């Protein structure tokens, strides 16, 4: 009987497909990842069984443990226009550079007179900066002004988008693009503080909210 | 000591032409692969797939809805949320003789009250859920059909109406917890309203 000869294999194997795959995945993750900018406020939200995701277009009010209020709105153009309008209202002029920097910022919680200085800070200093929240009491209700002008500018922007889409004969899903009002409050925040913010919204005839929560499992036995 | 190779001195025969060394066409890819996997691991670990979850909540418009709430108070219950994670409840309208009872946020507390009061609706909703499992529509379509079908059930006349009232000592978590219990027990008719002075006074006597 002839001896069975094992075929001699080279110990080095072809890594090309593996490398291809690895780079494909790297590219995918790099392109899809959107870095979350550091928020100036730490909020530990309560949990709920809700499985609904936060919509893409929102006006967000953060409330931290101390009841300080922070404001954020999505969409770059809307942010620029909102800041312009607020500047006019409070007689503060923002430079083009400040407008541009503001458009890519996340939520902020400073009174409007401190805002130019806050925008000019670099990222690291901004995180270190001790925000005091946006004034929201009846004597100087800046939060109400922010909410109102943010909403107004969003609607203007939406109308523009709509007419653009119609001019190009494209489909336009107004329902999907509707601005949602989100409240992200700390679990330990006093309800009184949250209520104050909700009252500001209801005064401006906004009654529907998305309360941001972390998910918890739904109990099955009931 | 230090010899300088003058080269060419002796002559090495006929093949004097310099020949380029034959290089292998394969390069060592290991460092590249290391880097690729390092990046891959980094992106996988840092990327957060989950967007934050949102709990829908509607607040009543101030003047318009109070009449409706008062009317519905009769077949509803009120939840009084106060400090120290304490929660009280009473059925119907607050009368001097009505009993304000202490309960808690555990499944045996609020959830029991809601389940008992809303049993008809829960049964209907569970039946709908069972039915929905047999549907073979695409996810999004099934969801919208389910929502459309559950709306009239939750808005039914028999449905329990819950009024949530929080005082200034309550935390935000308490309120969200109650709303969450309402969602678990399929209660669609609820409102978050202000606590009346009578209720506040009543709570003081209970402490």
Q: N-to-C terminal Cα separation of chain A, in Å?
A: 74 Å
Helix content of chain A: 40-55%
Shape of chain B: elongated
Low-pLDDT stretches of chain B are 6-13
User: Oligomeric form of this entry?
Assistant: heterodimer
- Average pLDDT over all residues of chain A: 83
Number of helices of chain B: 7
Please supply descriptive tags for the structure shown above:
heterodimer, A: 222 residues, alpha/beta, 5-stranded mixed β-sheet, 5 strands, 12% strand, B: 207 residues, 6 strands, 15% strand
Give a topology summary.
The complex is a heterodimer of chains A (222) and B (207).
Chain A: H1 16-32, E1 47-48, E2 58-63, E3 69-73, H2 76-89, H3 96-103, H4 115-120, H5 123-128, H6 142-167, H7 174-177, E4 180-185, H8 191-203, E5 208-215
Parallel strand pairs in A: 1-5, 2-4, 4-5
Antiparallel strand pairs in A: 2-3
Helix pairs in contact in A: 2-3, 2-6
Chain B: H1 30-46, E1 53-58, H2 66-72, E2 76-82, E3 86-91, E4 101-103, H3 110-117, H4 119-134, H5 139-154, E5 161-166, H6 172-184, E6 190-193, H7 197-206
Parallel strand pairs in B: 2-5, 5-6
Antiparallel strand pairs in B: 2-3, 3-4
Helix pairs in contact in B: 4-5
